[in-house]
Amino acid sequence: xxxxxxxxxxxxxxxxxxxxxxxxxxxxxxxxxxxxxxxxxxxxxxxxxxxxxxxxxxxxxxxxxxxxxxxxxxxxxxxxxxxxxxxxxxxxxxxxxxxxxxxxxxxxxxx
Length: 111
Known about the structure:
By secondary structure, this protein is an all-alpha fold. The protein has a domain at 6-66. It has helices spanning 6-30, 38-62, 69-82, 84-87. It starts with 5 loop residues before the first helix and ends in a 24-residue tail after the last helix.
């Protein structure tokens, strides 16, 4: 098993998030996007994607690097470009078999 000391793990975690977030901000800024949704959506997307990538990275380490780095890069790219549900093969197209979402919005209560 790959071993990283816990004190160093938080440093690695912070640096990974920082590098990934910087890359995402630069990428988003280069793309054309709707400026009316820019600030809030951009922040949420950057934090969501960077946390997901770091989570997958930790999974890969915890699983003793059982997949090649090329395979992991390909999986992350697939998740980023198609989304997790479609990447799993649950959605086959606009009219194909898929995951059905609720028609009514769900209200979440935060304490």
